[in-house]
Amino acid sequence: MLQSGDNDAELGNYGIPPIGLGTYRAGGYECFDAVRAALDMGYRHIDTAMAYENEAVVGRAIDCSGLDRDEIFLTTKIKGYPRFLDYDSVVEAATGCLDRLGTSYVDLLLIHWWNSRADMEETFGALAELVDSGCVERIGVSNFSVDQLQRAMDVSAIPIFTNQVEHHPYWRQDEVLSFCQSNDVVLTAYSPLAEGRVVGDDVLTTIGAEYDKTAAQVAIRWLIQQDHVVTIPKTVRPPRLQENFDVFDFTLSEAEMTRIDELEAPFWYRHNREGGLVYRARGVVGPVAERVVPASVLGKFT
Ligand SMILES: NC(=O)c1ccc[n+]([C@@H]2O[C@H](COP(=O)([O-])OP(=O)(O)OC[C@H]3O[C@@H](n4cnc5c(N)ncnc54)[C@H](OP(=O)(O)O)[C@@H]3O)[C@@H](O)[C@H]2O)c1
Fold it and tell me: What is the distance in A from the centroid of ligand 1 to the CA of 30?
């Protein structure tokens, strides 16, 4: 199994490769081909979830890659509905994930989001049991606020390895990140490209021109240069897979990091997030993230 190592593309500083392949909204042959191509290019970290309904394809692609299972860091997630979060349901859901993935273990199992109707002691008790039994290497959470993460750390008998949250130049998780850094929890940044929206950004493009890099590469580099941050850009296109991975041969200066830290998100992006048109699984962690907004409504603001 992957061990903590030097700061390189494979292992990173925290025992997890700093760049993984996201697979949300990818399925079928498209997903299979993307995972195969990514592994051929050197990606060693794949992110999936029960909710993405692509675990079987991801597992098959890993199987066909010619790599040993222990060369790949594989993450999946259990849905955050209360009916999946009691002790027996967590064990049952994890077993289902392993069956679909066709593997005897995952490197990281996350609770996809929290629901206040569930009982953390039961959920994290079951996760500890899964680690004990060897079918899960590490456990983590996703879309947890600082308060939820603190409570999870309090009840869990084993360390919380990561909190996977939305974090990118247009939506930074300063409070969650600082808590993670102080508590040695990795922050896995999802939607690192703001779902593709940062690619036309003038500041990122200008900074990238200095290094012959694209705005997407600058956004990814800005993330992995942050203490305790790894990221999981998603694409199904081989040229973009390569682009998103070619970020280990340049370093952003402190001034450039700060310039991106200070980037104002475009109005439509802020409005989307701060105007309450936010739903829990889209990354705002905390009390405002309670409403479910249909995609048709969200679409009017994007
Ligand atoms: N835990 C959670 O609740 C949660 C929520 C959301 C996402 N995630 C995870 O995080 C992963 C990444 O987030 P995301 O998929 O929301 O967004 P993202 O990675 O920020 O962006 C993906 C979008 O950008 C496009 N893209 C990728 N690379 C590009 C490039 N170099 N140039 C131009 N466009 C590019 C992709 O299109 P093509 O595929 O057509 O190239 C896709 O439309 C997900 O796949 C999932 O694994 C987790």
Answer: 14
Q: Which residues line ligand 1 (CB under 6 A)?
A: 22-24, 47, 112, 142-143, 164, 190-196, 199, 216, 232-237, 240, 243-244, 281
CA–CA dist 64, 205 (Å, integer): 37
| Distance from C-alpha of 155 to C-alpha of 85, rounded to nearest angstrom | 14
In a domain, 4, yes or no: no
Which letter, b or e, does each residue of 162-171 get, where b requires 16 or more Cβ atoms within 10 Å of its Cβ? bbbbbbbbbb
3-state secondary structure of 40: helix
Q: Among this protein's residues, is 81 annotated catalytic?
A: no
Q: Does the reported pTM lie above 0.85?
A: yes
Q: Are residues 175 and 281 in the same domain?
A: no
Are residues 275 and 246 located together in one domain of the fold?
no
- Please pick, among 14, 43, 52, 170, the residue that the annotation labels catalytic: 52
Distance CA 76, CA 100 (A): 11
The CATH number given to whatever domain includes residue 247 is 3.20.20.100
| Domain that includes residue 297, residue range | 266-302
Ligand 1, from 193, 223, 279: best to mutate by most atoms within 8 Å of Cβ?
193
Q: How far is the CA of 136 from the centre of ligand 1 (A)?
A: 25
Give how far the C-alpha of residue 272 lies from the chain's centroid of Cα atoms, to the nearest Å.
Answer: 21
- What are 267-294's pLDDT values in tens digits? 767 766 655 443 333 444 433 333 344 4
Nearest ligand 1 atom to the CA of 24 is: 45
- Per-residue pLDDT reduced to its tens digit, 53-82: 999 999 999 999 999 999 999 999 999 999
